[in-house]
Amino acid sequence: MGAWSKVRRIFTRDANVLTAEDLLNLQREGRLGGNVHVTNDTALRHSAVWGALRLRADLVSMMPIDVYRKVQGLQVEVPKPPVLVSPGGQEVGIKEWMYSTEFDLDRAGNCFGLITERTGVIGPDGRGLPGRIDLVPLGDVTVRANGSQIKKFRICGTEYDPWDVWHEKQYTVGGFPLGLSPVAYAAWTIEESLNAQQFARDWFGAGIVPSGTLKNTAKTIDKKAAREAKEAFRAAVSNGDVFVHGADWEYQPIQAVAQQAQFIEARQFGMGDIARFFGVPSDLIDAAVSGSSVTYANISQRNLQFLIMQLGPAIGRREDTFSRKLVSGPRYVKLNTDSLLRMDPAARAQTIKTQIDSRTLAPSEARALEERPPFTEDQLAEFDRLFGSRTAAPTVTPPPTAVPGATP
């Protein structure tokens, strides 16, 4: 049965209504346009996919990267190597590099780059630590492996040894040398949503389904009369003019599928499903499902939940990779998540005051947290003048008075 035959059969059930289920079934059967083939690139056409990937990459790229080492049990910050400042040379700084790599990791489970420079510091593998890493597109990379070991990388037709290629992975399984792709596993959900989008575009743009029916209620007309009536109607309404007819013609517009609640709800469900695949709460990408609500006392609690449950594990894995491959010896790399957990000014001030009052934070340390210099003597004198000095004079205890006749 052809597409138009099926459309006419549906019309006989209800003269001017196509349900969302009917139209999506036609789309799935391939009778109203071709299906969308989901790849790492075509998936980005979906707003939920783009929103989830952008959010995670934005947040990770803005986290400061620090290098530490342990000195007598204390964590001491040390200078960062150049690769953690400008990993792509003068052209690509660390924020852009982190954004690009996180974007690829979250959509494909892997990111790749060519190690084009090395430092004089020898790493655990006996080679110089990477000094520059030029990222390459995912589509340009193929991998030859033997079980869990990668033997060769082929990038743009050239083969490279594993130690010449920067490779990060996430969503791993045992015995497989590459990370799993969320886009591949979410392909069915993404394809369904993209097909719905394509159908809506075809509906409004390409005229896949007629916009209405023109029916003669007085008599049955032949093909010639139908063609003449259609041409007259089209000529009248194409430029916004009025179509004049007698009592025998009746026009009924077809309800637009995009206005039906069932169609909209199906698309909303698809967006929430995609958010789960990419590890982002749906409300953070404006894809919250109607009828569900999550409330938090403040934004800090919301961000903390997101960090612990979704983003934190990926950050920890990247810290471990950087610590093993980009720094030497006892040094290790940490991504500073404080920017994500930043509190509102009132809550932050109260927290700092509590720490100072409990003697767990010195005022000079609190000033440093606010990126302010230590108090000067003039500022301290001004505080004393306005609020009084808190330095109490030492109390001298007088010696006991001698009692006559008492034994010393």
The helix-and-strand class reads alpha+beta
- Give the biggest beta sheet: 3 strands, antiparallel
Helix content: 40-55%
Low-confidence stretches: 1-24, 256-261
| Tally of helical runs | 12
Mean pLDDT: 78
| N- to C-terminal distance | 122 Å
Q: List the domain count as a whole number.
A: 3
Count of DSSP strands = 11
- Sum up the overall morphology in one term: flat
Percentage of residues in DSSP E strands: 15-25%
Radius of gyration over all CA atoms, rounded: 34 Å
Q: What pattern of helices and strands is seen along the backbone?
A: HHHEEHEEEEEEHHEHEHHEHHH
* Main sheet strand line-up: 2-1-11
Model description:
With 408 residues, the chain is α+β, with helices and mostly antiparallel strands. The chain has 3 domains: 1-209 and 256-342, no CATH class; 212-253; 346-387, no CATH class. The chain has 12 helices and 11 strands. The protein has helices at 3-13, 20-28, 47-61, 94-108, 182-185, 187-206, 223-237, 261-277, 299-325, 345-357, 363-369, 377-387; strands at 65-71, 74-78, 110-122, 128-136, 141-146, 149-155, 158-160, 165-169, 212-216, 249-253, 332-335. The strands form 4 sheets. The chain has a 3-stranded antiparallel sheet with strand order 2-1-11. Strands 4-3-8 form a 3-stranded antiparallel sheet. α2 (20-28) crosses α6 (187-206) and α3 (47-61) crosses α4 (94-108). The longest helix is centred in the last third of the chain and has 27 residues, at 299-325. The chain starts with a helix and ends in a 21-residue tail after the last helix. Residues 1-24 and 256-261 have low confidence and may be disordered.
